[in-house]
């Protein structure tokens, strides 16, 4: 029997037949994979706590030609702090949705996995989860190869600005001479915030000034991701913005 030990998080579980579930797992070793969990619909099944969403598990999987089968597993982290807050649930679900839509199945993306796990951990440590969300989004889109240009005008290269704008189509900031009507004006503090969330690690979130409109940056980053990856807007994003009153 071919047993694989894989670290991962269930990002979706769909009923299959009378007794089983098909899981979509984001794993450290193999990226996104499909796993059959036989008997997992049985309320007495030992597998039930292994397949709850947001829990990180060391899975024992048996691999057949087409599929992975869930054999057993060991819980690494319950992440129960996420389940107690509906806004956190929507945001983490949104991260899952964005990752799933912007990567290939079975594509190994360890650095993204580590970023996600760390973000989930800090959702339990830091009150301001919109800041963490913005940090995740800008780091993730940078990992995909769309790091925003922030050190100079992304059109003319100028480094001295009277005012700063963000241009989705140019992939970064633009100066007052290059800005177009649809570009987003940034205050100096908003500009600094964007630079900081890109370069700073989660251990340093406290030094990032959050006296700005973080919802505006959140929307900007989501627009930036959608512009570059062409994904559809996840329903988790819509649920969150509705709840948060973001237009
Ligand atoms: Zn310019």
Structure commentary:
By secondary structure, this protein is an alpha+beta fold. It has two domains: 3-78, Nucleic acid-binding proteins (OB fold (Dihydrolipoamide Acetyltransferase, E2P), Beta Barrel); 86-244, Up-down Bundle (de novo design (two linked rop proteins)). Helix content is 35%, strand content 23%. The protein has seven helices and eight strands; from the N terminus they run βββββααααβββααα. The protein has a five-stranded mixed barrel. A three-stranded antiparallel sheet has the order 7-6-8. Helix 4 (129-143) packs parallel to helix 6.
Strand and helix layout:
Elements: E1 3-16, E2 20-27, E3 31-37, E4 56-63, E5 68-77, H1 80-83, H2 86-102, H3 110-122, H4 129-143, E6 164-167, E7 172-174, E8 184-186, H5 188-199, H6 214-229, H7 235-244
Parallel strand pairs: 3-5
Antiparallel strand pairs: 1-2, 1-4, 2-3, 4-5, 6-7, 6-8
Helix pairs in contact: 2-7, 3-4, 4-5, 4-6
CATH class term of the largest domain: Mainly Alpha
Could you estimate the helical fraction of the residues in percent?
25-40%
- Relative strand content: 15-25%
Number of strands: 8
Work out the radius of gyration.
Answer: 20 Å
GO cellular component, one term: bacterial nucleoid
Family: Belongs to the RecO family.
Pfam family, one: RecO_C
Protein name: DNA repair protein RecO
